Amino acid sequence: MYNDYPHHISDQPEAKIMSESPHSYIHGWSDRESIRLHDQASGLGFLLHEGTRYLPGSTVLEAGCGVGAQTILLAGNSPHAQFVSVDISPDSLAKAQDRVSGAGYTNVTFRQADICSLPFPAETFDHVFVCFTLEHIPDPLVALDTLRKVLRPGGTITVIEGDHGSAIFYPGTPAAHHVINCLVTLQRQAGGNALIGRELEHLLADSGFIDIHISPRQTYASQNIPRSSEAVKKIFIAMIEGVREQAIEGGLADPDAWDRGIRDLYRTTEQNGMFCYTFFKATGRKTV
Amino acid sequence: MYNDYPHHISDQPEAKIMSESPHSYIHGWSDRESIRLHDQASGLGFLLHEGTRYLPGSTVLEAGCGVGAQTILLAGNSPHAQFVSVDISPDSLAKAQDRVSGAGYTNVTFRQADICSLPFPAETFDHVFVCFTLEHIPDPLVALDTLRKVLRPGGTITVIEGDHGSAIFYPGTPAAHHVINCLVTLQRQAGGNALIGRELEHLLADSGFIDIHISPRQTYASQNIPRSSEAVKKIFIAMIEGVREQAIEGGLADPDAWDRGIRDLYRTTEQNGMFCYTFFKATGRKTV
User: Fold this and answer.
1) Would you place residue B12 in the very low, low, confident or very high pLDDT band (cuts 50, 70, 90)?
2) Contacts of A102 (CB under 8 A, 6+ apart)
3) CA torsion sign, B273 to A236 to A177 to A23?
4) Which helix (H) or strand (E) holds A214?
5) Is there a contact between B47 and A216 (Cβ–Cβ < 8 Å)?
6) Chain B residues with a Cβ under 8 Å from any Cβ in chain A
7) Interface test with B, best of A47, A193, A204, A220 (most B CBs within 10 A)
8) B217 secondary structure, DSSP code
9) CB A82, CB A14: distance < 8 Å
10) How far is CA A273 from the centre of its chain?
11) Residue ranges for chain A with pLDDT beneath 50
12) A166 DSSP assignment
């Protein structure tokens, strides 16, 4: 049924429902989370996607498209490439599809799939793009191995992940660091890794990719830089706030300590504050 | 005696010996430290000095030149500007002078001085350059106030500092973080601040500078990037190793834990390891 890929796959975007339960997505599935992810993608779009352009006619797998926050940037930046965007969540896929078709892009097809067990033949894609996905996967090497298999020889992979250990801010308080550490702990308990950015080089190497290049993409936010502090609030702090109940119910923080930490994080976006964060963008190539 | 500055000041570089004792320079004054500082400056020269060029005929104060590691880059990058490089240590100044004259530069004069109490009239300089100096000063606002006074109206200040909290590395172990934290603690005990990079924006603002711009300069080192891991060893790890005795004598680490932490740091420079660090470069302007 994949022989006529990629042209007809859009006719049956939800034809195959994977039986596995979704990996635990620590940030939740709320509407606010969906808005946050789009803010993240548009505000950081240039920073993260700079350098990622695909040739006309090439086929690209976006593995873990979520609500389509990166998809819309991929589709717009490489309008003559053909994208297949997969995600394990039907709800997210539906939102992604709405958004991409709403923007008028016709070069993306969607398909539900688990990136650790992809329903594509070997050597299907010219390129693979993965963003903010490996951080949620219990064994990223299994995912990378699966992705490498569906990549044609000589094809490239691009992986973008954050690393919450890269957050530097002023004023810095123990309470602010504590709420960030709560998210790191919760994500680890769910099988993910919020500090995965620093591991991309060895993960790609361990997976057998060659020509590995790491490009750190650092953001610096303060009131001197228009909209930057707003982005910290809408993207980073909102993400931390999203796990409040989990952190408190899990015994990682009491409500007062939590609220103090969040308040302290907001303080970094005010007068004389600063907030710095690094994303890691990794590229590699499959051997020919 | 400053009326004929800057042309004749080189005739009497040690004419005025400040009475204050030097600030505690936590990294020591050994020959190895001198070599380390030069390695640091040459390896990071492009990263840190990119964008710093002074117009022909302008006068620039380098405040805290140490052994001349940055001086030689300043003098070479702006060969027609006139530099006055001051440091509180006569030994460091002598080394800096040897190095700069040995390289054939004639656009630098040296003078011993405490940057918190400078022997120059107000509004003497067109620009001020400070690198890896404020981190050692108990009250950087006093230093910045002094520097602002000797700057002409509309003149610029450039400040470059590291921030050890920006160190991200893989593999990351508690022992490795512990030895870094030992240096941070020792530097704080000596009145300095090894986490000052994140504070440059508010420090310049609090000092009354305007048009403040912060440019984070991030390094990423791994075996895939030629010479980068060597630089981590020679610059960062050597700096940590330099406080071994102080850390052990000060009760911050026992010898085994220390040596394990250093070994773990070296591990980040080996196969599949990575080490990331951010310097913060700040510029500001004095109001006219």
Assistant:
1) very low
2) none
3) negative
4) strand A210-221
5) no
6) 163, 165-166, 168-170, 172, 195, 197-199, 201-202, 205-206, 212-214, 216, 218, 220, 222, 224, 272-274, 276, 278
7) A220
8) E
9) no
10) 27
11) 1-23
12) G
Q: What is the pLDDT of residue B16?
A: 28
Q: Is B185 helix (H, G, I), strand (E, B) or coil?
A: helix
Q: Please state, for a pLDDT cut of 90, what percent of chain B lies above it.
A: 83
Q: Which residues contact A92 (CB under 8 A, 6 or more apart)?
A: A29, A65, A66, A67, A68
How many Å lie between the alpha carbon of B90 and the closest alpha carbon of chain A?
35
- Mean pLDDT across chain B, nearest whole number? 89
At B46, is the pLDDT very low, low, confident or very high (cuts 50, 70, 90)? confident
Q: Nearest residue on chain B to A165, judged by CA atoms?
A: B168
What CA–CA distance (Å, rounded) separates B75 from B72?
A: 5
User: Which residues fall within 8 angstroms of residue A138, CB to CB, at 6 or more apart?
Assistant: A23, A191, A192
- Per residue in B146-188, pLDDT (tens digit) is 999 999 999 999 999 999 999 999 999 999 999 999 999 999 9
Q: With CB atoms and an 8 Å threshold, state whether A222 touches B205.
A: no
pLDDT at residue number A273: 97
Strand partners, B129: B62, B158
CA B53, CA A242: separation in Å to the nearest integer? 46
pLDDT value at B221 more than 70: yes
List CB contacts (< 8 A) between B276 and chain A: 166, 198, 216, 278
Beta-carbon contacts of B134 under 8 Å, excluding residues fewer than 6 positions away, are B140, B143, B144, B159, B161, B193, B196, B200, B203
Q: What is the pLDDT of residue A283?
A: 98
Q: Answer for the pair B41, B66: CB distance below 8 angstroms, yes or no.
A: no
Instruction: Tell me which chain B residue has its CA closest to the CA of residue A211.
Output: B224
pLDDT above 80 (res B97)? yes
- Cβ <8 Å between A198 and B169: yes
Whether the upstream peptide bond of residue A171 has omega within 30° of 0, thus cis, is: yes
Which two three-digit tokens encode residue B196?
Answer: 């000052």
Partners of residue A210 in chain B, C-beta under 8 Å: none
Band (B44; pLDDT cuts 50, 70, 90): confident
Among the partner-chain residues B216, B272, B276, the one whose CB lies closest to the CB of A220 is B216
C-alpha–C-alpha distance, residues A189 and B183, integer Å: 32
Question: Nearest CB to A170: which of B166, B199, B278?
Answer: B199
- Rounded Cα distance, A63 and A160, in Å: 11
- What is the C-alpha separation between A204 and A199, in angstroms, rounded? 9
Q: What is the pLDDT of residue B211?
A: 97
Quick one: which of A39, A112, A108, A42 has its CA closest to A80?
A108
